[in-house]
Structure formats: C-alpha cells, structure tokens
User: Which sequence fits this backbone?
C-alpha cells in the first residue's frame, strides 16, 4: 500500500509491501502513525509557523526553555555538526534564511519575520541542557533545522514501520528503504538529474539504509542569481561548486546533515569529510561530473 | 574505506530512543488519533453537500473555514492532482494526496553505467534529489480551501 501527504513543504510518500500475513488495514494504521512522526517533528521544528515549538522557544531569550525531544534531539545533532565543522555548518542561520526570502509557510502562504533576531548569531549562542532538556539562547536568533528535521522524521517513521520487512519512506527526495523491493532485490533509487527534471543521472541500490540529497536546483532564490536555499554561514553566500551531494547512511538524519554539510564544503573537501567518517555518497559537480565517494552500492563489485 | 564513525550513528539512534523513552510518541499519538476520529470524515464535492455541512456544523463562533476534509483539484506538469485537506479550528491539520505519482520510466534514465542498465528490469520509482517543493500542489490546496470557506 502507498500513501502520500504534504509535510515540511514537500511530498512524503510511504509505501509498505504487504506480504501474506499482514492486513491492509493494520498496515494503514501503522502508516498513519508514521505520518504522525512527520506532523510532530514539523510542529516542533518548523521555522515557518509562529506557534511551532522552535519559534516559541526562539522568542524566549536568555532563559532556559523546556523543549520536547522532537526539537531537542535534532537540534542536538545539528549543534554537534556545527561544533565538528567549527561553524561551517550552523543551525543559527535561520535569520539569514528569513532575510533571503525563505520565510513563507507552504500551506498558509504567510511569511514570517523576526526583526529582533541577530543574523550574526552562531551555534555557540545556542545552549542545550541535557539534564533538564532545556534550550537557552544567548542572543535573539532564529534556529534553522532544515538539514536535520526531515531526516529525523524519516527515522522516527521508519521505527514506527519496523514490523514490516519491506517499506520505503520518501520525503521529497530524502528516503529510507527497508528490506527488499517487490521483486526481492535491493531498492533502486535514482539520483535526480539536476537539469533534466524528468530524468535520473545515476542509480544506486540500498537496503535498510537512508539516502539524502542536498541540491541547488530546487528552491533557488528568485531575486538573486546564484543564490539558493543552502547558504554558507561563513560567507553568507550559496556555494556553487556542486549542484548536488548525496549521502547514504544507516540513519536519515545522518545522511541529511552530512549531505548539507558536504554540499557546503564542495566536492573536494566534502569527499574528505565523508571519507573521514566512513560514509559513502556522490557529488554532481557544477559541470555535471559524477564524483563517487566511499564505494557506494552500484560500484561495490570492485570492493567485494 | 574507513569504518563508519560510531559517534554519529549513536547520536541518531539515541535521538530516536529519546522520543520513545520520554513516552511522547505513544501517549500523544493516541490523543492525536482520538482527535482525528472526531473530525467529520466528509468529502465535500457538491454544492448540496456543502450546504448541509455548514448547516449541521454551524457553531456559535463563526470560523473562517468549516471543520472537515475537503478535496481540491490542480494541475502540475505530470498531469492532474487531487488533494484532501483536513481543517480543524481554522488550521490545516492534514493534506493527503489522493491521486499522485512520480514515476520515472526506464526511458527517462540517462548516463547510467552499463552494469546498472543491465539490472534495470524494474522501474525506478524512487528518486533522491534536492527536496522538491509543494508549489505544484498549491492550486489544489487552494481549491480545497475555497470549498471549505465558511460562508
């Protein structure tokens, strides 16, 4: 069975391969629960809803605000990535994103503006307390969890569906595939061609893994040529060394965060980053060359 | 190839566990399901249905939208699409795509290495790419909202 809903400004499609024993009704209940994961993470992490947990917390400066794990956990992961990359990836970039026009809610059409927020704020201004599960902001700022929240929702949804041997969760091009496809083979996942919208440029095979792609060919900045939704916290500009970076990982949050970070780094430095943690992936450079990293599935024959 | 760094895997695994350990998912989820069940499962498609709904659901405080599930049609470059928008207390709580498919056929595949092409017996239906936006669905969502207007 297959169902698709809109969350986080994209299409989330969940497909469960039902074998003999499971009923369609039972599968549907589980799939609905999996969609609930997206609803909860979106409500916790959205930068576009004034009443999200994230935006509510961002209005409370210089005091500890208790937050739920739906916000705490992805934020913690984003902050770890920021520390590790010394701010080359930084979730404090929300205000800059707002200023670049990435501030419109996809369902209500309402734009959000946080005039008080400081666009020079950095990850060091965001402090999490592990004991009390609170968030403390040193400065008025807007947190952007665009590189982790969707991945986290996919991981939670996958947990909800774990009793099924075979399923796939596809959140607008970031996905997790469990087990084998209908033909008993690893799931085939095409890599979107950055220019030819109806075509794929490559194809990989995954099983019990997530694959996430960050790319510059969607969500381009209409007003500023060369700018898109991935912005370097260091320069304030969009990197254009690659047009996309794809990461394969056991968790979607891991693949999601690393695909964004690798994109920010560019393919040469990004390759080193990916190799240093033992992940695999592929870059499409701006001249449409495919650069593979870490021996991904479709050329794994040489590795075996 | 270096061994996968455990640190990041542990962080992800702990993140998922934290949600369940805190009891958030199960308890809140039951509550959410109850709310969903209370919503009138009505598909408004005709003017007659709309009238009867607004009459039966008329509340003392006039809201912008009626509560319920409303369908809307739209077009995108792959053809027509239909969405079912659920509204509760003037908030969109759910948007289900009732008729939508992103399919990539074999003929769409370019630049594949030979060994992949040989294995290409099944259609590639899942594609990883930069997160595509919901722009293509806006007309359909708007059409559903128009249906839901409390007039």
Assistant:
């Amino acid at each position: 069975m297959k169902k698709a809903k809109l969350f986080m400004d994209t299409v989330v499609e969940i497909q469960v391969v039902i074998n003999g024993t499971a009923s369609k009704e039972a599968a549907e209940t589980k799939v609905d629960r999996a969609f609930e994961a997206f609803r909860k993470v979106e409500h916790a992490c959205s930068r576009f809803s004034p009443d999200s947990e994230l935006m509510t917390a961002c209005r409370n400066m210089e005091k500890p605000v208790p937050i739920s794990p739906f916000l705490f956990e992805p934020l913690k992961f984003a902050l770890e990535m920021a520390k590790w990359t010394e701010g080359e990836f930084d979730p404090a970039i929300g205000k800059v994103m707002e200023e670049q026009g990435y501030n419109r809610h996809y369902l209500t059409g309402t734009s959000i503006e946080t005039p008080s927020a400081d666009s020079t704020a950095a990850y060091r201004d965001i402090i999490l307390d592990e004991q009390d599960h609170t968030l403390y902001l040193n400065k008025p700022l807007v947190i952007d969890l665009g590189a982790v929240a969707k991945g986290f929702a996919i991981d939670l949804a996958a947990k909800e569906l774990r009793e099924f041997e075979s399923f796939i969760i596809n959140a607008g091009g970031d996905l997790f595939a469990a087990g084998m496809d209908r033909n008993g083979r690893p799931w085939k996942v095409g890599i979107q061609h950055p220019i030819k919208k109806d075509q794929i440029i490559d194809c990989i095979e995954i099983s019990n893994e997530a694959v996430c792609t960050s790319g510059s060919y969607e969500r381009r900045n209409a007003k500023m040529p060369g700018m898109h939704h991935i912005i370097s916290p260091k320069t304030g500009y969009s990197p254009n060394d690659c047009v996309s970076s794809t990461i394969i990982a056991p968790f979607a949050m891991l693949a999601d965060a690393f695909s964004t970070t690798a994109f920010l780094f560019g393919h040469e430095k990004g390759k080193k980053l990916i190799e240093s943690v033992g992940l695999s992936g592929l870059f499409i450079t701006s001249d449409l060359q495919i650069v593979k990293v870490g021996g991904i599935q479709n050329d794994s024959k040489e590795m075996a | 190839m270096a061994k996968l760094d455990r640190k990041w895997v542990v962080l992800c695994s702990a993140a998922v566990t934290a949600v369940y350990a805190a009891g958030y998912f199960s308890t809140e989820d039951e509550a959410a399901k109850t709310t969903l069940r209370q919503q009138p499962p009505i598909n408004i498609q005709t003017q007659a249905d709309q009238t009867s709904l607004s009459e039966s659901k008329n509340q003392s405080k006039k809201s912008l939208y009626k509560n319920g599930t409303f369908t809307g049609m739209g077009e995108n470059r792959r053809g027509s699409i239909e969405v079912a928008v659920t509204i509760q207390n003037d908030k969109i709580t759910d948007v289900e795509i009732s008729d939508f498919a992103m399919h990539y056929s074999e003929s769409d595949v370019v630049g594949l290495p030979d060994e992949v092409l040989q294995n290409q017996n099944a259609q590639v239906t899942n594609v990883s790419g930069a997160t595509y936006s919901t722009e293509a669905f806006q007309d359909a969502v708007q059409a559903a909202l128009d249906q839901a207007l409390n007039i």
Notes: DSSP finds seven helices and 13 strands in chain A. The longest strand of chain A covers residues 242-249. The first helix of chain A runs from residue 24 to 45.
